[in-house]
Amino acid sequence: MLIGVPAEIKNSENRVALTPAGVAELVKNGHQVLIQKGAGSGSGFEDSEYLSVGASLGNSIQEVYDRAEMILKVKEPIELEYNLVRKNQLVFTYFHFASSQALTEAMVKSGAVCIAYETVEASDGSLPLLIPMSEVAGRMAVQQGAKYLEKPLKGKGVLLGGVPGTPRGKVLILGGGIVGTQAAKMAAGLGADVTIMDIDLQRLRYLADIMPANVTTMMSSEHNIAQSIQSADLVIGAVLIPGAKAPRLIRKEMLKSMKPGTVLVDVAVDQGGCIETCRPTTHEEPTFIIDDIVHYCVANMPGAVPYTSTIALTNATLPYVIQLANKGWETACRENVGLSKGLNVVNGEIVHGAVADAFEPQLA
C-alpha cells in the first residue's frame, strides 16, 4: 500500500503523523511511504532521515493526496484539504467530527473512509490512540495555566506552589480520566492545592489511592462545581465522551462568581468544550478574557511540544497503521473490533453513533 503523510497545515501545528522509525517499520512490511517535503521538520525530523529509511518525498500536499491510498495525519483535514480527499481513500487521523458540521459534511461528500484515532478502542474499553495526546495535554494544561496566572498575562498573580508563609494556589480539575489524572500529577508536583472531580466513584477511589496528600477527590455535581470555582485559581476542563460533544459544566453566568484573573483551560475544546464561554484558540493567540476570567482554549495543545508528541503518537498508532496497510481497512476492521470502532464515515455514510446523533438530522 502507498501511505501518504502530508504536512499539517492547521495553525501552529508542528507535529507529523509518522516518525522515521515508523516509516522503517512500514517499509519492512513491504509498503511505500510518501512524505511531503518538510513535513517532519517542525517535529525535529528532517527529510534526509525519512529518505534514509526508505521513504520517498512528495513536492506538494496535492501530490501526496493524489497518489496515496491511505492518508496518515495528526489533525483533521481543514477546509483547504476538503477537496483533496478522494472517494475510497482511507484517512486515518484525529477527526473530532461531533464538533464540526462542516468537516462532517465534507468527508461525507468526499466518499472517503474516515477512521478517527479518538474512537478506536482497546479490549478494555480504553482509547489507546487518544491516551498519548491526552497525557501530553493534561500535563501541558497545568504548565500553561501556571504561566497565564502571571499578572503580566492578566492572571491573578498566583504562584501555584506558593512559598513558605504563603497559601498554595488552588487548582480544580473537572474529569478524572487520562487528562485529569496527568493534570493532577503535574499540579500536585508543583505544590498546588488540587481538587479533582468525577462522576465515577470507583475512579475517585482509585485516584485517592494513587495521588499525594495535596490532591482531594470530590464527586462532580453542579453544586460542587459552582462552589469550588469561587476559590479556584486555575480550572481545567478535562471531560471526554468518546466521539460526542463534551458536556457543558461551567456556564457563562457562573464566571461572575469567580475571582478576576482566574484561568480556565478547556482541554475538551476540540470536542465542543466543557466550559460554555470557551471557543477554539491557537498557539499564536491562545487566550481571551470574558468577565475578567482568562480563557486558554488551544485546540491542539500537544502541537506546541511536537518532538515529544510525534514520538508518543507514532508509538500508539503504528500497530494499527500496519494492520490497515497489510490487510486493507475492511479485513483489518472485521478482525479487530476495537479498530472498527474508529470508523466514523464510510463511503458517504456516517457509521459512528455519536456522530450520527449529532448531525444526521441536519445532513439528511
TrEMBL record:
GO MF terms, alphabetically ordered: alanine dehydrogenase activity; nucleotide binding
Active-site residue numbers: 96 (proton donor/acceptor), 270 (proton donor/acceptor)
Alanine dehydrogenase/pyridine nucleotide transhydrogenase NAD(H)-binding domain span: 149-297
NCBIfam families, sorted: alaDH
Enzyme Commission number(s) from the entry: 1.4.1.1
Lineage, broadest ranks: Bacteria, Pseudomonadati, Bacteroidota, Cytophagia, Cytophagales
Signal peptide: none
GO biological process: L-alanine catabolic process
Classification via InterPro entries: Ala_DH, Ala_DH/PNT_CS2, AlaDH/PNT_N, AlaDH/PNT_NAD(H)-bd, NAD(P)-bd_dom_sf
Family indicated by similarity: Belongs to the AlaDH/PNT family.
Residues involved in substrate binding: 15, 75
Designated name of the protein: Alanine dehydrogenase
Sequence positions that bind NAD(+): 134, 198, 203, 220, 239-240, 267-270, 279, 298-301
Reactions accelerated catalytically: L-alanine + NAD(+) + H2O = pyruvate + NH4(+) + NADH + H(+)
Any Pfam family the entry gives: AlaDh_PNT_N
Keywords from the UniProt entry: NAD, Nucleotide-binding, Oxidoreductase
Domain Alanine dehydrogenase/pyridine nucleotide transhydrogenase N-terminal: 4-137
